[in-house]
Amino acid sequence: MKTTAAALLVAEQELVAHLFVVADGRSRDGAGQTIDLLISRAEEHLRMTDPIPLNGGPFDGVVALRQSPDRDAQMVMRKENGVLRVSILLAASKSAVDEHEAPWRRMDRLLDAVIGDVTDGLIGVARLYLGKRTEKSLVMEPAETGAAIAALLPESGQERGWWQRPSSAVHGLTAWELTPRLKTRTERRIVVLAAPDGDRELSVWTWSDGRPLFPPFARYLEHVAKVRYQARVHACATPVSELCERIDGGILELQGLVNAGRRTNGPFVPTDAVSRGLATLRADQTQVATRAAFLKTMHRTVKIANTSAQAALGGDAAGQGALFHDDRELGAWFERQLEDDISYLESAYEGAARMNESLGMLTVPHTPAQTPAADPVLGIVTAMPEEFAAMYVMLQDRTRVNIANDRADYILGTLPGPEPDTPHRVVLTLLGDVGNDLAADGCANLARSFGSVALILMVGIAAGVPDPEHPERHVRLGDIVVSTWGIVDYDHVIDRPGGAVLRQPFPRPSRLLAHRANWLAAEELQGRRPWEELLARAAETDLPEFARPDAATDQLFLADESAHIVPHPDMGLSGHRPGWPKVHYGHIGSADRSLRNARVRADVAARYNLRALEMEGKGIGNSGFANGLEWLVIRGISDYGDNHTGSLWRKYASLAAASYTRALLAVCPPVAPRGGHTGTARASAG
């Protein structure tokens, strides 16, 4: 009876759900599976078998549109900025009226059958219980209305007395949040009520204005969900205080050991205990630097999300009431927390650095590598003469060799590592032409001819993906892109009625080198960029014709058929420094296409979140995986993959990639020969 009385207060009950799922980086394959799963369940449980016709389209980012034949259930899937947005609307069906169960409760059960156990990559979920206030409820106080309609809502997820919180008002709508106010909550349940004549305001704000565009309130909820997602990630990590305590404890232990050693007569001689302590301190220092870099990125993400959330609310006093106040308080608190954490980590790092300096050039004892000079452990593959020349000048102790039954030419040499007397033994080769097949063949031949090689790097040039509308993602000529997230084989697809999907996951790149790339990223955040010194010296002394072209030649055009130049974003926003390359980390697309089409480049890059596109990475990754080799692709950006492509930046881009490669290996520990191998095919010096 209580439910019947409450039903007189709310008309036209509907349920809208918005899911936000990570859809970039390593979660892209999972997002694709989520799409397939939700479409299948929507067809089974909600009879969503019909497409929703688009008027005035196409609309960017729309992945799927489904509805039931009676239009009582609709689903829109969108993908933008690495997030899959799934929006579902359930209306009270006249044919399914149950006077013993409120429509909100029945629709909530149906929704559970579709989205209830979706957790992979989940950023957040918002369930919006929509309705219109009746004349009877208009004369009631908001808290009185909330208390009455609680009987219409699902019991799960309700915090006792939620209606006693101040209601929130935005764009003429009244809202309450039902869920307990935990900082890291994944799901939010919110009642949103409109005036009796407020159909349009309710729909535009929470669902649609008639087009498949993302509604403002959903956009707001997504940005706040991102803040809470980052808070959950932060809470699951090793506490910053623990990392700092390790550094402090290591410094105190080393100080004690050094002081004890200095009490003896004669010069101080480091003991094994001091060497082990220093090695532990350096490992902790690396972890602190990596965490600081990670938290700086997190802080930037949270700051952007907080700002974007307020912008999504529009000019309505940025939202009023408990719901919006709690969100603003959370965002401000988390920003301050991250700032404090970063400050503590930087202080710990500086303390460890001072201890390292006070101990001079003390290094941990090590056993020199036993690999013979002719047995390299790192292979470097290039595809073009400019790429080969740039990498060649980076090598030391160079010797040309040829291997019986292998037509390729090889250069044996060394590259400095972190231990001065244990350089990396490398072999460099030049492919006969560009392309993934030749790259795979070249990688296989190198692995066969040099059985000691354990790791392959593909170093050269690629087409960059500019994104002036998102400055932090904008790639410019001369920049460097490192495939730490992997290679996307974007032409290896299954053509389905809903569009092409990748046929299978691609092998992952070297964890070792990806970790060392993170180390370089942490170094850069502290103002250290060793590749820049290598790049400048090589361009000045070894390859002056590889010098950086004039900045005015880095031109980005509106379209292939247009001569209109698009301005690059402000360097302060994009993270570029005048005269130097920016290093990007992420996905690189690879296929047997030489792109000269800006539209195709933009479409492929947006679909797979790419930073660059090239023609050898797929071959290197597949062949490396097949031959038991770790691998990584490093690219300098020579063009934008459009019809305006030229060769002016090719040499500089090659040298930039080579310089970064040497800097990366300089912080990479010695690599063991493959499978303990110490022999090689018979070689002859050239």
UniProtKB/TrEMBL annotation:
TM helices/strands, residue ranges: none
One Pfam family matching this protein: CATRA-N
UniProt-recorded Gene Ontology molecular function terms: catalytic activity
CASPASE and TPR Repeat-Associated C-terminal domain ranges (all copies): 215-352
Ranges for domain CASPASE and TPR Repeat-Associated N-terminal: 14-210
GO biological process: nucleoside metabolic process
Coiled coil spans: none
PANTHER family membership: AGAP000321-PA (PTHR47705), PNP_UDP_1 DOMAIN-CONTAINING PROTEIN (PTHR47705:SF1)
Protein name: Uncharacterized protein
